[in-house]
Design goal:
Elements lengths: L2 H67 L1 H14 L7 H13 L9 E7 L4 E6 L2 E2 L4 E2 L5 E2 L7 H8 L7 E3 L2 H6 L10 E8 L2 E10 L2 H8 L8 E7 L9 E5 L23 H8 L8 E4 L4 E8 L8 E9 H52 L14 H70 L6 H32 L7 E4 H11 L1 H6 L3 E6 L7 E4 L1 H18 L5 E9 L2 E7 L30 H11 L3 E6 L6 E8 L1
Parallel strand pairs: 15-17
Antiparallel strand pairs: 1-2, 1-8, 2-3, 4-5, 6-7, 7-8, 9-10, 9-13, 11-12, 12-13, 14-16, 17-18, 18-20, 19-20
Enzyme class: transferase
Protein name: histidine kinase
Keywords: ATP-binding, Cell membrane, Kinase, Membrane, Nucleotide-binding, Phosphoprotein, Transferase, Transmembrane, Transmembrane helix, Two-component regulatory system
Length: 651
């Protein structure tokens, strides 16, 4: 932050901000009271509207009960009893016709579309009247008469009908609607059903299905405060396909009476928090309350019980735009912010004039930092200034550059040592390979020489005088072969690595010092090194050759830095897994090609460009880890998004 900005901020915080904050707090306090009064009024409005809907639903249940008590239905109970006994009388069709005529007269009484059904004790439809139109029996059965709708053969539904309380209207989902039409698969309202008994024997049921036009009429004429959108949903945990079902929604222009083949659920909208509130509420009824949504709207909602016989609730919510609610106070706050902005502009101008002299010294120091970062390590800050703090800052910069220059020299020295060690390792590996290839034919020559001498000594066809020159030549061949074998052994002994020197050392200190060795290399590529250590490892000791293990870790870190893109992060994570320590080095490079994964530990194999590696680092590292009874694993991350190298060592 610039000095003039700092000076301005202090002035702004001391004068302008308190006054602005005080004015804003006053408006927010007034607005909070206003919103609370608004909430109470809206809650009262929703409560009256929900009470009107509950009264309408109660009237529908009373109508269903009245139908069941009608004389025409009482006379028809004997017919249902005969059907249950598979004994159809001669007056069956006449009695069916009488009931149909009775139901057809309810067109003027029942508002909107309705379906009245009489079901037998198997749940099948004996009589059905839709508005003033009776349905003809067209589905034959084995009892000698026809059903109005297709037989269900649904034992679960029959059990539900049988267990309905006597002389009481219950609410449930009739499967007949779905069978009749896909558009009736998701009716908004549950069907009103009352069981029918003849001489204390259950013989069937009467059902009244309403689409809800009367409820739509009530809601369409209801006032929407602040031009809000009304929403009604059903919470019904017992019936999964009705839990969260949207019954009425102004936003989607969805009404109770609309036929729908596909259900719409609240869980698929921005209003899903309502379902969570209903599920986690400790009481059976949600108190009128408010919840915010993701579309800058506020939901005012209440809950009602439309069906006393069911554990079903309806949530009625009113969605109001926050802009509509807060409109009176938005202009006031705009004025306050405008005054604050003008004051801010004046403060910036005055601060710029007053701080120009001081900032010049800081600009020079910033330039020194940039030049040093770009490689000019000869930068020296001016330490003579009228401001003591700037003078001290210049001295601190000079001390820092001296320290970093010393560190650079130490790093260059360490890199030179690492390069020399790498070259020696390459020579050793080459010597070992050559020695191994030469040693095999030498062993064969030696074996054949021994065999030839033995065969020559036991050959009776040659005299001792003939054998002597040949034996002398073969002995010379054997001696020269042994001498060559001794030379090869010497080469292979030179190639062998130095055995580890085991000591105990602190894991955390070892990790931090190892990362410090490659910090400069990471900085040159703008790579960030992030070390995360399990708290249990803070004081943990590890037994091993600290220097050799550091060589492994540094090699893996350099590989990760080389592979990573600029301005990314290499993560080093250390944790305990049972009796082992796991150290992971994770980069964000391009990963290793699949065909190269099996070759990375081979000597002299490298994917780096010429001059960037010998291909011995991983093979030497693997040998060191194996000498410590550990494991070294290198794999691509998921999606080829970099590499993860794991060092696993026993504690």
């Amino acid at each position: 932050m610039r000095i003039q900005t700092n000076i301005f901020l202090w002035g702004f915080l001391a004068f302008v901000l308190p006054l602005t904050a005080l004015a804003l707090i006053a408006t927010y306090y007034s607005q909070a009271n206003y919103l609370e009064d608004t909430r109470k009024n809206i809650d009262q409005h929703l409560g009256m509207l929900s009470s009107e809907i509950e009264r309408r639903l109660a009237a529908d249940r009373a109508l269903t009960y009245g139908l069941a008590q009608a004389p025409a239905i009482h006379e028809f109970l004997a017919v249902l009893d005969n059907i249950s006994q598979q004994n159809i009388g001669g007056n069956f069709n006449k009695q069916i016709n009488a009931v149909n005529q009775f139901f057809e007269g309810f067109q003027a009484i029942i508002p909107g579309t309705f379906f009245i059904r009489i079901l037998d004790n198997q749940g099948n439809t004996v009589v059905k009247v839709s508005n003033n139109l009776r349905s003809q029996p067209v589905y034959d059965n084995l009892q000698g008469f026809s059903y109005v709708e297709q037989e269900l053969n649904n034992p679960i539904f029959i059990t539900q009908l049988r267990e309905l309380p006597q002389d009481e209207v219950s609410s449930m989902v009739l499967p007949h609607n779905k069978v009749q039409s896909a558009l009736l698969s998701h009716l908004s309202l549950l069907d009103n059903v009352i069981p029918l008994y003849h001489q204390n024997k259950w013989v069937g049921a009467l059902s009244l299905t309403l689409l809800g036009e009367d409820l739509d009429k009530i809601l369409n004429h209801a006032i929407r405060p602040f031009d809000g959108s009304l929403l009604i949903i059903e919470t019904n945990p017992d019936i999964k396909n009705r839990h969260g079902l949207i019954l009425f929604d102004d936003m989607q222009k969805l009404r109770f009476a609309h036929a729908r083949s596909d259900a719409k659920y609240l869980q698929d909208t921005d209003y899903s928090p309502l379902i969570e509130l209903a599920q986690h509420n400790d009481t059976s009824i949600l108190s009128p309350s408010v919840v915010s949504t993701q579309k800058n709207n506020t939901l005012y909602f209440t809950e009602m019980t439309p069906y006393p016989s069911q554990f079903v609730n309806w949530i009625m919510a009113l969605s109001i735009s926050d802009a509509k609610l807060n409109q009176p106070y938005a202009k006031i706050r705009l004025t306050i912010w405008s005054v604050a902005g003008i004051t801010l502009l004046i403060g910036l101008i005055l601060t710029q004039i007053g701080a120009r002299r001081v900032t010049r010294a800081f600009s020079d120091l910033i330039l020194n930092f940039k030049n040093y970062a770009q490689g000019d390590h000869s930068q020296i800050a001016i330490t003579e200034h009228c401001v003591d703090e700037i003078k001290d800052l210049g001295k601190a910069f000079n001390e820092m550059t001296n320290t970093l220059n010393i560190a650079h020299k130490d790093r260059d020295k360490a890199q030179q040592m690492m390069l020399q060690s790498s070259k020696l390792a390459s020579i050793g590996q080459m010597a070992a390979g050559i020695g191994h290839e030469i040693n095999n034919p030498l062993n064969n020559i030696l074996s054949y020489a021994k065999l030839t001498i033995r065969n020559l000594e036991n050959n009776p066809k040659l005299t001792q005088q003939d054998k002597q020159p040949l034996l002398s030549d073969l002995q010379s061949l054997r001696e020269e072969t042994l001498r060559a074998s001794d030379i090869v052994k010497g080469i292979m002994n030179f190639a062998r690595q130095v055995p580890p020197h085991f000591t105990e050392f602190n894991i955390k200190d070892w990790l931090e010092s190892s990362i410090a060795l490659v910090q400069q290399s990471a900085s040159e590529k703008f790579i960030h090194l992030n070390l995360e250590i399990n708290p249990d490892l803070s004081e943990q000791q590890l037994k091993g050759d600290r220097s050799q293990l550091q060589q492994v870790l540094v090699n893996l870190l350099l590989n990760a830095i080389y592979a990573s893109k600029t301005d990314t992060t290499v993560h080093v994570n250390a944790s305990i897994n049972n009796t082992q320590i796991e150290i992971s080095i994770i980069d964000n490079g391009a990963g290793i090609k699949a065909k190269n994964l099996d070759l990375i530990f081979d000597p002299f194999f490298s994917t780096k460009g010429q001059g960037h590696g010998t291909g011995l680092g991983l093979s030497i590292s693997l040998g060191i880890i194996q000498d410590h009874q550990g494991e070294l694993k290198i794999n691509n991350r998921t999606g080829n998004n970099g590499v993860i190298a794991k060092i696993i060592l026993p504690l």
